[in-house]
Amino acid sequence: xxxxxxxxxxxxxxxxxxxxxxxxxxxxxxxxxxxxxxxxxxxxxxxxxxxxxxxxxxxxxxxxxxxxxxxxxxxxxxxxxxxxxxxxxxxxxxxxxxxxxxxxxxxxxxxxxxxxxxxxxxxxxxxxxxxxxxxxxxxxxxxxxxxxxxxxxxxxxxxxxxxxxxxxxxxxxxxxxxxxxxxxxxxxxxxxxxxxxxxxxxxxxxxxxxxxxxxxxxxxxxxxxxxxxxxxxxxxxxxxxxxxxxxxxxxxxxxxxxxxxxxxxxxxxxxxxxxxxxxxxxxxxxxxxxxxxxxxxxxxxxxxxxxxxxxxxxxxxxxxxxxxxxxxxxxxxxxxxxxxxxxxxxxxxxxxxxxxxxxxxxxxxxxxxxxxxxxxxxxxxxxxxxxxxxxxxxxxxxxxxxxxxxxxxxxxxxxxxxxxxxxxxxxxxxxxxxxxxxxxxxxxxxxxxxxxxxxx
Length: 456
Fold this sequence. Notes:
The chain is α/β, with parallel strands linked by helices. It has a 7-stranded parallel beta sheet with strand order 3-2-1-4-5-8-9, sandwiched between helices. A 6-stranded parallel beta sheet has the order 12-11-10-13-14-15, with helices on both faces. The chain contains 17 helices and 15 strands.
């Protein structure tokens, strides 16, 4: 395959387990990366998760997002066993039904010896699939994104077999627990050996913020010069121009403000603190009748919804479409429809779990909407570096409900008094994080690695 100048297009193998129609949090970076590389003249092949896993284990997909993947991209889906996730005994193999302890022992031994993730079978099958494809038409470079981090191991193994260089994209941390700022594994765990092995041969490694790059550079100083920051960003093709929200004083009567959270809610986020703060803020005259609308999924797996709904204080069976409750769960939103949510929102609530090393991809999209943003997260997370300079940011720098409530009231006042120039400045701040802008250095690094290897 050639480009418009008749030259052979550089060919990249992209190991991205979570890829559309997956709705995992990292899927947007993967989708955008594949599309951007294609636009820049690359021949892109993606190895992604089997659809069976997305439908039967995760329990939901976003077909609208899948439709936004560039049709020039080839997507292959290596098989993966679902031993650890299978709960229906009727679907067990004869051996597992009759010898459950033995099959569990065999699975555990393979998990421990091959790679310490339940996705290891996908990694092995990905390498096998990649080798067959490489034999027919060679790849120039491999880009692997984690999690799961078996994608890194697969890139390393493919490199050992073929010599094709690879780049590891840490859209998440592997050996660092982002919620405790402590190592995720004990010193003797295999994950450390694998990470050292992967980084030692990687042509480059990427991190979503400088704090994470620094943490890894401190532990692997011999390869620190190959580490780079590729932040998350927002996707203009999924965010049509966001207009101003509906008039706040139709017919001379103040309209109740609409606060919105958009994204997947998990147990790692301070959900209860957010709800308590909003209930306290709502007694202020500025907040009379205000609603906190929750748009998105409750957890990444379908079976975890009820616990998070309880934290929100909502009854999923009784929630009404026209509810006037303080907190309202609005349900999932396709990524292609998020612009409509932002357009109907007066204030956005940035709810994030974790501590120092957390950025969260959602904050870039929030800024692009040009709305007041209220932070509900631990002090000092990496996202504050991104928000610094955003003119409509309201941050209590605390998770104390009373202090968060005060910032919600301040954001409410700002929403009623906002001037067009403030909104323009807010969107200008967000412009530097357009996805094509933040991905350009990664594309340049990939191209440089390929050209350097070809010149040898």
